Amino acid sequence: MADLDNIAKEFANYYYTTFDNDRKALAPLYSDVSMMTWEGTQHLGTANIMEKLVTLPFQRIAHKITTIDTQPSIQGTNAIIISITGQLMFDDEPKPQQFCQTFQLVNNNNSFFIFNDVFRLNYA
What we know:
Radius of gyration: 14 Å
Number of strands: 6
Function: Has a role in nuclear-cytoplasmic transport of proteins and mRNAs.
Pfam families: NTF2 (PF02136)
GO biological process, one term: mRNA transport
Keywords: Cytoplasm, Nucleus, Protein transport, Transport
Protein name: Nuclear transport factor 2
Strand order of the largest sheet: 2-1-6-5-4-3
Distance between the termini: 33 Å
Order of helices and strands: HEEHEEEE
Number of helices: 2
Helix content: 10-25%
């Protein structure tokens, strides 16, 4: 399980650092079969996912990870589920927003890609 936890931590750090600095650079992490649900709206394939991510209505964002939970997924394959909670800081907003994001990573030719991505803001 330690290997999965390390993969999850490395993935999360890479994903959110890239998201915060250059969302367009996330494209290689997705594929044409990837599905992202963003606040209840589904986007299929790299092009549609990237269109959503690069058109989000903020200029600056910073993610702060609070928790990372990991489980193996799809018996007999090399896939993992990663559930992440944390805080977001948008532009000049003084109060952080809470978020939850879940990924299913699937191994393809010794490299993981995001097969599923589900994102929600947590409103109190």
